[in-house]
Design a protein that fits this description.
The protein is α+β, with helices and mostly antiparallel strands. The chain folds into 2 domains: 2-286, Immunoglobulin-like, CATH 2.60.40.10; 291-392, Immunoglobulins (Immunoglobulin-like). It has 6 helices and 26 strands. The strands form 5 sheets. The chain has an 8-stranded mixed sheet, with no helix packed on it. A 6-stranded mixed sheet has the order 8-17-16-11-12-13, with no helix packed on it. Strand 12 (217-225) and strand 13 (230-231) form a beta hairpin. It is elongated, with a radius of gyration of 38 Å. The termini are far apart. The chain binds 2-acetamido-2-deoxy-beta-D-glucopyranose. Residues 188, 242, 245, 249, 251, 253, 255 line the site of 2-acetamido-2-deoxy-beta-D-glucopyranose. It holds the Pfam family V-set. Residues 1-24 form the signal peptide. This is Novel protein similar to tapasin (Tpsn).
Length: 442
């Protein structure tokens, strides 16, 4: 019982805290962007941009509350909106920076025209005639990007004609607008949606689509027709969505089983309701640092006066930007940059990763190389810095150290002593022999 009451107390505390802090809905400054009136449409339609402001609450605004709010004077009153957001989709800390902070979330609001979707997996949604009365309203689409790449959001809002009180009807968002991962790992691209349960569109079906886009190239990754409970045929393998999560929490995250270089790009998560759609983009970057090797391996002994050519091979990396360089670490532990060497162009492997190499001419007469040490190839990459080293040994030491000189003096002394000793021994035995010979001759 006491455990239960503790849980009860804690939940009350969490509840109050949440309404004080985490449930705080922002006052969002947005750019209201629309086509300039009087232009017939087309590709190069001039756009107008006005400052606008959204007051946001999870409950509807009463006239009383509205009179207490004072929008800044530089925003036209016709561009001030009182948004009801029942699920609190806007009420994330990422869209609600501390007062006075320099960084602000990005936000844009556009007029939205409901329309039947043309894509195959969403066309079933508008098979039956929809209540056109419900669509006769002012519709808006809001795109917002939270701070620190924590959130990207796209909401469709409906306001009774000529009112200033829109309500969020459809919300699509991702908590991972930017995803970076290593090669060969499973990847989760977050996307979730919410539909206002009080809207007539709720329960009349939805469709989900994930598209891939990179430098103008695009392809369908996954499409789910929720009305017919059917996935569309795609050429993509190893990409899936958890259907249970979809129906339970609106979690339509895309799961890639194993990341490959070709997966790098932008993924667009689109949710279709009858006549409505909202989408968010998630950027995926596959970042794999290079593997390095130094050739020849092991390095041959360096003969003084000779030039040795060494090569550093960096392979298996992506993206292609790489900074290759050489370092020498002497016997005294001090490092010295030897520059870039001559770097080759990139080669591309069948898995999409890159390789590149650098050749360095090691001139033993230069610098402190003459004493040998360690040669390192250093590769700076977005995925991290990698380093490979090889021992460099030199035949015959041209510039001896103090220790070496002392050892040489000691050896010299020893040799001198031995020669002295030997010569003394031999000369004394020589004289003995000669005495004998002398005697024989006599
Ligand atoms: C969405 O589903 C994926 C895959 O099942 C899961 O890993 C992820 O945690 C879910 N996200 C949320 C917010 O529940």
């Amino acid at each position: 019982m006491s455990g239960f009451s503790t849980i009860y107390k804690i939940s009350i505390i969490v509840f109050t805290l949440c309404f004080g802090v985490c449930g705080a809905c922002p006052v969002l400054e947005c750019w209201f962007v629309q086509e300039k009136p009087g232009h017939g449409g087309g590709l190069s339609t001039p756009m107008s941009q006005e400052k606008s402001l959204m007051f946001i609450r999870t409950e509807a605004f009463s006239e009383e509350i509205k009179t207490e709010l004072h929008p800044p004077a530089d925003i036209s009153s016709s561009r001030v909106y009182y948004v009801t957001d029942p699920a609190g989709t806007f009420c994330s800390a990422a869209l609600n920076p501390p007062k006075g902070s320099v960084n602000k979330p990005k936000c844009e609001i556009n007029p939205f025209m409901p329309h039947a979707s043309m894509v195959r997996w969403a066309s079933a949604l508008t098979d039956s005639a929809q209540s056109p009365v419900y669509l006769q309203a002012d519709w808006f689409s809001v795109a917002a990007q939270g701070l620190d790449e924590q959130l990207t959001l796209s909401n469709i809002m409906r306001a009774p004609l000529a009112s200033k009180d829109p309500k969020v009807i459809l919300s699509v968002s991702s908590k991972t607008p930017v995803v970076r991962c290593r090669l060969g790992e499973p990847v989760l691209l977050d996307c979730g949606f919410w539909v206002d349960p009080s809207s007539p569109l709720h329960g009349s079906g939805f469709s989900i689509e994930w598209r891939y886009q990179f430098r103008g190239e695009g392809r369908l990754v996954l499409a789910y027709d929720g009305k017919n409970d059917r996935f569309a045929e795609t050429s993509e393998s190893g990409a899936e969505m958890d259907i249970t999560g979809l129906y339970q929490t609106g979690n339509v995250s895309l799961i890639l089983e194993e990341s490959q270089v070709r997966h790098s790009g932008t993924y667009i998560c689109t949710v279709y309701l009858p006549h409505l759609l909202a989408q968010v983009a998630v950027d995926l970057e596959i970042v794999e640092p290079p593997s390095l090797s130094i050739l020849p391996s092991p390095l041959p002994l360096l003969v003084p006066g000779q030039v040795l050519s060494v090569q550093c091979e960096a392979s298996g990396f992506a993206p292609h930007t790489l900074d290759l360089g050489w370092e020498f670490t002497g016997a005294d532990g001090k490092s010295l940059s030897l520059g870039q060497g001559s770097v080759t162009g990139h080669r591309r492997a069948s898995d999409g990763t890159f390789s590149q190499s650098s050749r360095l001419e090691l001139d033993s007469t230069k610098l402190r190389l003459a004493r040998g040490g360690e040669i390192s190839c250093v590769a700076k990459h977005d995925g991290g810095t990698r380093r490979a080293s090889a021992a460099l040994n030199v035949i015959g030491v041209a510039a001896p150290s103090i220790e070496d000189s002392m050892a040489m003096v000691a050896v010299a002394l020893l040799l001198y002593g031995m020669i002295k000793f030997l010569s003394w021994t031999f000369s004394s035995s020589d004289s003995g022999d000669s005495e004998l010979n002398d005697k024989k001759e006599k």
